[in-house]
Amino acid sequence: xxxxxxxxxxxxxxxxxxxxxxxxxxxxxxxxxxxxxxxxxxxxxxxxxxxxxxxxxxxxxxxxxxxxxxxxxxxxxxxxxxxxxxxxxxxxxxxxxxxxxxxxxxxxxxxxxxxxxxxxxxxxxxxxxxxxxxxxxxxxxxxxxxxxxxxxxxxxxxxxxxxxxxxxxxxxxxxxxxxxxxxxxxxxxxxxxxxxxxxxxxxxxxxxxxxxxxxxxxxxxxxxx
Length: 225
Ligand code: SAM
Hints:
- The chain has helices at 3-21, 29-37, 69-78, 96-104, 115-127, 164-168; strands at 58-61, 64-66, 86-90, 107-112, 133-137, 150-155, 170-182, 185-194, 197-206.
- By secondary structure, the protein is of the alpha/beta class.
- It has a domain at 55-206: Vaccinia Virus protein VP39 (Rossmann fold, 3-Layer(aba) Sandwich), CATH 3.40.50.
- The chain has a seven-stranded mixed sheet. A two-stranded antiparallel ribbon has the order 1-2.
- The longest helix is centred in the N-terminal third of the chain and has 19 residues, at 3-21.
- The model has no long low-confidence stretch (mean pLDDT 96).
- The site of S-adenosylmethionine has 26 residues, from strand 2, helix 4 and strand 4.
């Protein structure tokens, strides 16, 4: 990509932040800064790259998507990151959300069930110089106990309910942000741990691809391919 193309993408990114995020109420300065910095177009496959900054999700292969910028920002905002957290992301996909998290937290573990998506994400994140992200391949519906507890967990695929393993791997005061629901729509939920109790809040309706695996959707009719 030449300098002119990079500059054009940068202008589009600025417009994305103003029109899609700030105007819709995303106000946290560190988050807006991260959304302004991370080159979303690098995470989008070449055939869709010209659409990288549009107000919606885009296909990334394997029947999966990179989420809409506003939803990435909203979910990140709900995690209440201060800068010193260990974060788990379930559903690496393109790696874009992981990069945003890495700008705002100390360390990010991200897990993806499709090895080819994980490989591609890892490569892009390496090219961009991220050293605080570890990409794992596996069933993230069971979490990643080796690196628990997490002060924040984000699930970027729709679950039938908040997976027990993820609730267990939350640190005291930790937050889990997750879309819960089925094929026809889901609700964005936040679970906050207080000892053995969890506070549950509901935010906005969303539309995600399904979470698969042990604690995910089993119904194979809910496919995007
Ligand atoms: N966060 C991604 C990004 O920034 O591009 C978008 C993720 S996409 C909406 C959801 C991802 O979750 C898909 O890549 C899918 O393969 C993955 N996924 C679904 N079930 C999973 C599971 N049990 N463990 C790990 N990844 C899973």
